[in-house]
Description:
Largest sheet: 9 strands, mixed
Mean pLDDT: 90
CATH class of the largest domain: Alpha Beta
Distance between the termini: 60 Å
CATH topology of the largest domain: D-Maltodextrin-Binding Protein, domain 2
Radius of gyration: 20 Å
Structural class: alpha/beta
Oligomer: single chain
Low-confidence stretches: 1-22
Shape: globular
Amino acid sequence: MTGPAFVVTVCALALLPAASCAQERLRQATIVVGSPAGGATDKLARLYAEGLRQTFANTVVVENRPGATGIIAYEYVKNSGQKDGSLTFLSPTYPMAISPHVTKLPYDTLRDFTPVAIGARSAMTYAVGPAVPAAVTTMAEYLQWCRDNPKLALYAAQTGSSQHLLGAILALSSKVPLANVSYKGDAPAVQDMLGGHVPAVVLPIASALQLYRAGRIRVLAIGTRATSRYLPEVPTFQELGFKDIVFQDWRGFFAPAGADAAAVRAMNDAIAEVARSEQGQKTLAGLGLTPEIVSPEVFAETLKADYQRYGGLIERTRFKEAFDRARGG
């Protein structure tokens, strides 16, 4: 069976909403990721690619186009002219809601893309390694240690990222001059922390969870609004009095501006089905990620709200100046 009749059969079997069934199944779809293979965003893209093969397109591939904190990948999608849903990208929050406030980009977050769906949310953690004395087990003790050892008041994070901004807000709020040591990704930062070369790292929970459970790092705080089900014994920054530190960011799918509304709805529905599935929930939990099923319209409003919130935080913390210094500007 081929053509529209096959699409209707697939939709019926998958119990997808009617909006998905109105969109003809694509022959091939590509999800672009602006980071190397093996990272949390790449793993999430591959989870959804597998699920979308069942309902959205006959073939779904993940294409890694790393470099320039996602700019290469996102500009490629922007300029593709493919508005039928066959080309999208999956992005963390910061290239879309933080980077526009600190550097010139070849895209406009709010004008050049169509929000499709939120794949999941991931909280940020503040972790320390063997360079920090074992007796330091709380954020208060760590900040005092930094005051006593100002040359070691360092944390690792990719310049301009959510991790970098979290550290800047912590420094401002605590009045401890924490300095960022720039890394190109979580893996080399963690390696140096475990080797004792950098005392602390701001990490997505997906990158911190296994190391924490193995006792190799100490997580002092987490950027969720409420206690995390993955780290229930770790206090939130909110509980510690740092009210501005909420970093529970999304990883979201985007299509080029003007993308076909029926295709966007169909992909959103298919992503929701993956997130609801037993395998999807199991995989997301293994990555320390939390699913969030919202419509394209709600995601668009979320994007605008985060864009404005981060813009305000960046202005208050003078984060752009710190970013320019780190970049040698």
